Amino acid sequence: MELLYKAKQRYGLVVLNYMVTSNHIHLLVSDDGDRDTIPKSIQIIAGQTGQEFNRRKKRQGAFWEDRYHATAIQSGTHLFNCLIYIDLNMVRTGIVLHPSEWVWSGYNEIQNQKQRYAIINYKRLSQLLGLDSVSMLKEAHARWLEEALKTDRHERDCKWSQAIAVGNEEYIEDIVKKLGVKVVYREKNQIHKGFELREDMIPYNADFAPQNARLSQNNSHLWNVYQ
Question: Does the pLDDT at position 53 exceed 90?
Answer without folding.
Answer: no
